[in-house]
Amino acid sequence: MMAKITVMLVDDHAVVRAGHRMLLSQYDNIAVMAETARGEEACQIFVTVRPDIVVMDLNLPGIGGLAAIRRICGRDPHARILAFSVHDEPLYVTRALEAGCKGYVTKSSAPEILVEAIIKVAHGATYIDPDIASRMVVQPAAGNGSPAILTTLTAREFDIFHLLVNGSTTREIAEELCLGYKTVANYVTLIKSKLGVNTAAEMTRLAYQYGILKS
User: Fold this and answer.
1) Which residues carry this modification: 4-aspartylphosphate (predicted)?
2) In 3D, which of 75, 71, 69, 59 has the Cα closest to residue 162?
3) How far apart are CA 160 and CA 104, in angstroms?
4) CB 3.0–4.6 Å: which of 23, 33, 155, 164 could bond 67 by disulfide?
């Protein structure tokens, strides 16, 4: 009999983690062995329990999901991390893969997609949500591939950029990411400098240009 695939769940919503546990408990070959709501704790727990798969949300308080992926993969290049996110933009997938994750599934996907992704990534494959994968094949022809200007942003800067262009205020971002208001304000200034823009409207136009926002 094959050993069970051990899973660690990382999501700041307890209801989401409970749903994952309930779903995965239906499969004899998968076992949830750990869970946490924060990226920092995920890095610490990973070293202790060494799960086969980490199912990682990207929108986390503290260091954030992309940064947590980088830290875990920095400690263990063979770590198998599956990003499980509300974001379905191909650029977000690219950033997650660059950080070191081996798969990407959106939270709007059918439950069996998540299970399929866990099994395939556990066996060494890379798995991208089929809907996103089809768009990633088409996108380079329309937009010169991954926009280099956005790759200058760090994981946390990219998180804040995404929230800004989706209409969140600096104070709302600070609350959502559990950061100080001044810290987020400094991030916003740095993001504008890196992108060569001065206003929120210019950032939004950039987001539309590269498919982060849909018209």
Assistant:
1) 57
2) 59
3) 20
4) 155
Which amino acid does the sequence have at 192? K
Q: Per-residue pLDDT tens for 58-92?
A: 888 878 888 899 999 999 999 999 999 988 877 78
Under the banding of pLDDT at 50, 70 and 90, the label for residue 141 is very low
Q: Does domain 148-209 have CATH number 1.10.10.10?
A: yes
Fold of 5-138: Rossmann fold (3.40.50)
Residue 87 has which token pair? 């974001």
Fold agreement between 5-138 and 148-209: no
CA dihedral 85, 89, 91, 96 (to 10 degrees): 10
H/E run at residue 112: helix 111-122
**103, 52 Cβ separation under 8 angstroms:** no
Is this structure's pTM higher than 0.85?
Answer: no
CB-CB contact of 68 with 60 (8 Å)? yes
Long-range contacts from 17-21, C-beta under 8 angstroms, 24+ separation: 20/55, 20/114
Both tokens assigned to 105: 């599934």
Contact, 207 vs 163, CB < 8 A?
A: no
Cβ count within 10 A of residue 124: 9
The pLDDT tens digits for 170-211 are 999 888 888 899 999 999 999 999 988 998 888 888 888 877
